[in-house]
Amino acid sequence: MKLSRIPGFLRFLSSNDNxxxxxxxxxxxxxxxxSFGQIVKKSVVYFDTSNRIRVVSGPLKQLExxxxxxDRRKGRAKVRLDMFRDSFLxxxxxxxxxKT
Length: 100
Fold this sequence. Notes:
Elements: H1 24-34, E1 43-47, E2 53-57, E3 67-71, E4 76-83, E5 86-96
Parallel strand pairs: 1-5
Antiparallel strand pairs: 1-2, 3-4, 4-5
């Protein structure tokens, strides 16, 4: 069975001919995501007085500076990640709380 036929599979390497080790930054990012387990829970956020998102906890906590789009109604945030010398978007869920 080919791995590429598995639902959700994207890729292992940028090229099968030119295999290079992961950079430290890529390895750290992968380790960060793997620390949340197989299913990533929603982050907890609030919106400040300037209507900017502020992350309290969850996977978005360390990615706050890379959030490029927020849909408050759907509770979704798009994050730009750079990995394997490429840039792509990941969609995360969040739960908004009222700041006290």
